[in-house]
Amino acid sequence: MTDLIAGLGVDLGIAQAVITTLATMLAIGVAFLLRPGPPTLYWSFAFTLAMLATFGVVAGQITDMEGLRRASLGALLGAPAFLWSGFRAAWGLRPYVWVGAVVAGACAVVLASIDDLAWFTMAYRTAFFAASVFAGLFVLDWARSASRRSDRLVLPLVIVSIAFFVMGLATFVAGFVYPPSGGDDFMLLRLVSSVGMLVYVACAVVAVVGTTARDSGLGRPAAVSTGWHQFERIAGERLLRAERTPEQWAVVYLGLDDAPDIRQTAGAAAFARLSERLQEEVRAAFPAESDVGSPAPGDVVVLVPRPDAAVRDLLRTILDRITRLDVHGALPIRPTASAGWAPASVLGYDLDTLVYTGREAARVASEKGGDRWERVGSAIVERLISRSELP
Questions:
Q1: Would you give the DSSP letter of residue 251?
Q2: Are 359 and 383 spatial neighbours (Cβ–Cβ below 8 Å)?
Q3: End-to-end Cα spacing for the chain
Q4: Keywords on this record (predicted)?
Q5: Phi, psi at residue 121, to the nearest 5°?
Q6: Could you tell me which of 289, 103, 79 has the C-alpha nearest to residue 204?
Q7: Which of 25, 81, 118, 344 has the most crowded CB, counting CB atoms within 10 A?
Q8: Which residues contact 133 (CB under 8 A, 6 or more apart)?
């Protein structure tokens, strides 16, 4: 029985080496290079440590270097702490990245220094439980925010982390209820933990690479660009026809105030939902014959066929409604927006000109404190001209 489990352990070790190598390549080559920063750096630490430790375990098993195998087993248990630190950094929480290094180093030293197999089994159970605690802490941090709970990419890792913590706690308690014999019980524990690690690493790399790609906008620009191009085509055609009628038209450019801070603090999922809610409120507040488009998350452009007095009322209404937006309590601050109002009667009927000047007017409104609108006038035009003349 022991020989069978030992043989399976070597095969699983090779599988672990392959999986952790691929995970490290994805974490560094995709996540970190796509979005360099503390979260992806800590995740890269986790996968690199897991890869190197797994190679050490396999090498120790093949060459019968028991000290190397045990030290590598201990170092491997520091990877969940680094993963936890990476997610805390991504969620705007204090990462405590030093904990991963302490756990890896302490477990490696302790497991490598124990000769008696029975005591080693108990030490391994304790170290395994310590590693599982960080999986449990990850779940607790995830559960504290509605925006994190709505992130489907992280959900598989959450489920596996719960199982990891339950297993770690169960094996730790079992070590006291059933004293270790130093035989098949430890080999079985190693086999189960190895299978669990394969699943854990797979779910972790999906969460890490998936959230990084999503937060960096990978895969979204095509959809956003298609919708925006469609708006430009329809709005441009309507303006060409409107130039031959006495009806008054205007472009309103709305941009969320403090958008980078909201994205960083609340997370990409909450910011994306806020951007969707912004578009929904704009469509509800403006007349049905208006055209609405979004050039980027957090920005909305409206082509509205209304006279000046009506546009003023619409701006007051929409700015007030934006302050009451709620995304399941996930936003750190009350959302506000700044609006730029570009009337066609003053600037002509070229859509690009109206959008460009409207965006500049919205920036001026944001610089003045936000939660207000600014009409395009001579000051805005002079500001654009002076900027274009800079070397």
A1: E
A2: no
A3: 78
A4: Membrane, Transmembrane, Transmembrane helix
A5: -60, -45
A6: 79
A7: 81
A8: 165, 168
Phi, psi of 305 (to 5 degrees): -90, 80
Q: How many CA atoms lie within 13 A of 151 on its CB side?
A: 32
Q: How far apart are CA 232 and CA 236, in angstroms?
A: 6
Distance CA 263, CA 270 (A): 7
Helix (H), strand (E) at residue 293: strand 291-296
| pLDDT for the residue 330 | 58
DSSP bridge partners of 301: 253, 293
Locate 155 and state its tokens: 């959900």
Which pTM value belongs to this model?
A: 0.59
Instruction: Give the three-class secondary structure for 12.
Output: helix
Using DSSP, state whether 35 is helix, strand or coil.
coil
Q: Which has the higher per-residue pLDDT, 128 or 150?
A: 128
pLDDT digits (tens, 9 = 90+) for 213-233: 766 555 454 445 567 888 888
Quick one: tokens of 81? 């702490």
Could you tell me how far CA 260 lies from the centroid of its own chain? 14
Tokens standing for residue 186: 């430890």
What pLDDT, in 10s, does the model give residues 29-58?
888 887 777 888 999 999 999 999 889 888
Q: C-alpha distances in angstroms, 149 versus 90, 145, 159?
A: 14, 6, 12
Classify residue 229 as exposed, middle or buried by CB count within 10 Å of its CB (0-12, 13-18, 19+): exposed
What is the DSSP code (8-state) at residue 328? T
Measured CA to CA, the distance from residue 178 to residue 296 in angstroms comes to 60
Check pLDDT > 80 for residue 269.
no
Distance CA 157, CA 28 (A): 19
Dihedrals phi, psi of 387, to nearest 5 degrees: -70, -40
User: Could you say which DSSP state residue 372 is in?
Assistant: S
What is the Cα–Cα distance from 184 to 178, expressed in whole angstroms? 13
Residues 312-356: tens digit of each pLDDT: 999 999 999 998 887 655 566 788 899 999 999 888 888 888 998
147 neighbors 141 (Cβ within 8 angstroms) = no
- Joined together, the tokens standing for residue 356 give 């460009």
Token pair in block for residue 53: 């430790």
36, with CB counted inside 10 A (0-12, 13-18, 19+), is exposed
Looking at per-residue pLDDT, the higher value among 263 and 361 belongs to 361
* Neighbour-count burial of 388, counting CB atoms closer than 10 A to its CB (0-12 exposed, 13-18 middle, 19+ buried): exposed
